[in-house]
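stage 2 :: seqdesign
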């Protein structure tokens, strides 16, 4: 039976909101946390920038109110003096944050935290997805396998221990109802860090199972995911697959390497001797996959601001590899598509000093002006990786994304 909270989310009339507001951001936990809906227009206070100093200054200036938005993956270029020269059709800004004109907290009721909101209205549905072209993968399986073998050579030579390699599938000439696409994707996945973002004519529909980092009071936690396996056809097969994932030495080594990286990142902003691994290589079940998740926590040093804390850990190790900087350089060398918002982080800063941000994975990103829909999927490559198996894992991760699109196509 559908919960009252989920019923409220289903009745949000995202289609109407997208017609009425320049910016719409829904943070949807699907019953596993507190949900927020933020609305703003072009006159609202906002910051769209690739300049890290400008972003930090803006966020610090607005630390006493709610700010919501995202950090794009390519902020790494300023954090670590790197560059990005890969294809970028979507042209999303490297970061975007805003102060909402209306902010709703969604529990079992709609609570208005900011602004005046009288309710939701009906809206005519837009046209379903139309495209004069078919899905394409940016690289063939053969090309993908060649790239993995090159990455494994780097690992064998001690260049890196692990690298998160991603590739893109896309749809050109696509006319899309982004709100319908998000609702279809969310219905399929019910992910705990699901988000929908409208930013003018650019949209993100995200079904993320992964938290990047949260601060509540003085406690900071990060929950990296490494290790994926499909769901079973029945409870017996499901139990077998959970056990198989939990005991897989390759998947465990992937996860543990990233846990070590996260521990190191958190140690930069933590009080002495407070970094702790609360949970190591636990398997959680989602609608479409089982995932191996660890939890690392720390007590934040009060001398660091919220943006200091978050950026000390950014980009998240689960989407880079280790060592982080070398892995990011090789990602730029071997991937074909600029990541942009993908493998960045969407979330909020609250006026009481707390924050919560996801990892942007299992996402469909759409530029309405260019009629271009993009999905990126990937996985961690280690010395034990089998290229064919890695390719199959990316197809598994893309499955719900593609199914959501197909449900919207008429």
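stage 2 :: out
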């Amino acid at each position: 039976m559908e919960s009252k909270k989920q019923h409220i989310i289903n009745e949000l009339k995202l289609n109407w909101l997208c017609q009425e507001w320049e910016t719409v951001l829904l943070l949807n936990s699907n019953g596993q946390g507190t949900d927020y809906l933020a609305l703003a227009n072009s006159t609202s206070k906002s910051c769209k920038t690739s300049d890290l100093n400008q972003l930090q200054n803006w966020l610090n200036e607005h630390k006493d109110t709610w700010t919501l938005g995202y950090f794009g993956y390519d902020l790494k270029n300023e954090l670590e003096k790197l560059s990005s020269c890969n294809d970028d059709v979507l042209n999303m800004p490297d970061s975007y944050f805003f102060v909402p004109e209306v902010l709703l907290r969604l529990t079992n009721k709609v609570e208005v935290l900011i602004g005046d909101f009288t309710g939701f209205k009906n809206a005519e549905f837009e046209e379903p997805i139309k495209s004069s072209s078919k899905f394409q993968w940016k690289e063939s399986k053969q090309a993908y396998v060649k790239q993995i073998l090159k990455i494994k050579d780097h690992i064998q030579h001690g260049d890196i221990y692990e690298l998160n390699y991603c590739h893109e599938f896309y749809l050109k000439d696509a006319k899309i109802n982004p709100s319908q696409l998000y609702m279809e994707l969310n219905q399929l996945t019910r992910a705990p860090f699901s988000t929908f973002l409208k930013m003018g004519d650019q949209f993100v529909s995200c079904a993320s199972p992964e938290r990047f980092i949260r601060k509540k009071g003085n406690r900071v936690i990060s929950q990296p995911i490494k290790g994926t396996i499909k769901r079973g056809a029945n409870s017996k097969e499901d139990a077998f697959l959970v056990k198989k994932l939990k005991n897989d030495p390759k998947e465990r080594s992937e996860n543990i390497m990233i846990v070590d990286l996260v521990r190191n990142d958190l140690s930069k902003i933590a009080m002495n001797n407070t970094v702790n691994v609360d949970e190591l290589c636990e398997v959680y079940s989602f609608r479409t996959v089982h995932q191996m998740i660890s939890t690392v926590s720390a007590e934040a040093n009060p001398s660091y601001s919220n943006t200091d804390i978050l950026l000390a850990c950014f980009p998240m190790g689960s989407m880079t590899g280790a060592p982080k900087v070398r892995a990011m350089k090789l990602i730029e060398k071997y991937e074909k598509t600029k990541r942009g918002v993908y493998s960045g982080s969407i979330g909020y800063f609250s006026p009481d000093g707390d924050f919560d941000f996801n990892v942007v994975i299992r996402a469909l990103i759409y530029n309405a002006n260019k009629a271009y829909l993009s999905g990126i999927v990937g996985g961690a490559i280690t010395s034990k990786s089998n290229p064919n198996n890695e390719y199959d894992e990316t197809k598994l991760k893309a499955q719900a994304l593609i199914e959501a699109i197909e449900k919207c196509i008429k």
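stage 3 :: structure notes
- The radius of gyration is 20 Å.
- The mean pLDDT is 93.
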